[in-house]
Amino acid sequence: MKEIIECIPNVSEGRRSDVINEIVQNLQKTGVKVLDYSSDPDHNRSVITFVGDKETVKKGALQVAKDAVRLIDLTKHHGTHPRMGAVDVIPFVPIKGVTMKDCVEISKEVGKEIAEELNVPVYLYAESATTPQRVKLPNIREGEFEGFFEKIKKPEWKPDFGKPEVHPTAGVVAVGAREFLIAYNINLNTTDLKIAKKIARSIRESSGGLRYIQAKGMELKDKGCVQVSMNILNYKKAPLYRVFEIVKMEAERYGVNVLESELIGLMPMDAALKSLAFYMQFPKLTSDRIVESKIYE
Amino acid sequence: MKEIIECIPNVSEGRRSDVINEIVQNLQKTGVKVLDYSSDPDHNRSVITFVGDKETVKKGALQVAKDAVRLIDLTKHHGTHPRMGAVDVIPFVPIKGVTMKDCVEISKEVGKEIAEELNVPVYLYAESATTPQRVKLPNIREGEFEGFFEKIKKPEWKPDFGKPEVHPTAGVVAVGAREFLIAYNINLNTTDLKIAKKIARSIRESSGGLRYIQAKGMELKDKGCVQVSMNILNYKKAPLYRVFEIVKMEAERYGVNVLESELIGLMPMDAALKSLAFYMQFPKLTSDRIVESKIYE
User: Fold this and answer.
1) What is the pLDDT of residue B297?
2) Which residue of A has its CA nearest to B241?
3) I need a surface site. Which of A99, A268, B69, B274 has the fewest CB within 10 A?
């Protein structure tokens, strides 16, 4: 594949495995490559991760939306995770050979089709958002499915695509382009949770730290240490090395050292190479210098 | 491809483009992926780089050997690069999903076939060598094509495969498994060539430095600085970060800083991840944590 876009639709079903299987099987038939899907019965929600080129990723996203709208009835849905739609959110992530702008374009095309074909109102979010209030998903989702019947009538919550009428069983959906999210943790050689919490506050955006970083301090009882657990929402603007070096530096003031870094899930090759370039002073180090990339290009 | 082996046959023809093209075209028909080929008219030699799985890489290597033996006559070959065979050397490099042992096995199978089918005596070299004298290619190649008619009669130079009779036009060939070779340079913020030479001596194996490192000091007149120019013959045992940190450390004693790192050609993803793991304290960081690898696996 010369171009790779990742799509991670979240659907509001995490218990009925026949429903999940049907959605995933129909998705696979569209020609995309499904990398992963996982369901949480408590959340009553499933997250599907697939990749494709521009055309197939659009087909795949639309197929998931169609099946979710057909198979899921939010009037009967209960779970601990907030949700506003049968297909709740559809993010598109540029991985290779495509720009963020391309993904914004894709999100708009898919959003338009969902509204027109499925009668589900669409909100563009993240990089695709049309107002500042719609950038962050929790702002859009506030009130959830049940609250949207009123919320949608407000002028500031007029959908980006579709009429301001909530789909009776499938609700509304957020569609948008965003950067790859990296789940990254750093373990510290102390059992003092207060230190991890202080460091988390110093690094995260919400407490005045680095933009694009979410962080909290956690205790790891089994390992006998504490952890700064983070999400990097934009690894291009908040590169891994910078996050690591700041946490390490802040830990040192308490006489605490880094035990190890931990990656949850995956990261793009670019994210790894960008950080290696920092440490080894490569002016630029991109995937076209990596043998495996040449092989697959 | 689940398994990837790289093969880099060197053939003794760098001037007649029709011959090179015929070799490359026949190679492509075997199902391998040709990543690169480059010819040097002064050396009168071409280097072909291709990849495949275990079966196709063997077919590809044998095809190159067949065509080189058929099309190249060493009795009429002149060039600045030493050579002993129409196909001079065939290295196999493990890239993904295969071990060095697998590549040694492949080199033996290919060597056996070349001797039997083409009547060209074969020397196993590098990781495949059967005696310490045969590990390093220059030892085997000493005397070149012309000298081999006498050399091959000595008991210590009995070929690993085939009779001790030099092929009249195609000579002999070295076949073996080795690690990926990384060409890596470090530029320093000084114009004093003596410093680059001193650092090169401190890092390279031949002067008592790190094993698997070849290094020399060079002047970069255009850039107005000097360079420590290196080959890393085994990046698994002499990882990039260690080479970089030692050069940086040695430079500091002269009040000199690293300007930048420079990679010539490609490196395997593993080499990059191994060094990033060092700097960011990942206990382990392998390609299965990289999105692009999951996509292609």
Assistant:
1) 65
2) A280
3) A99
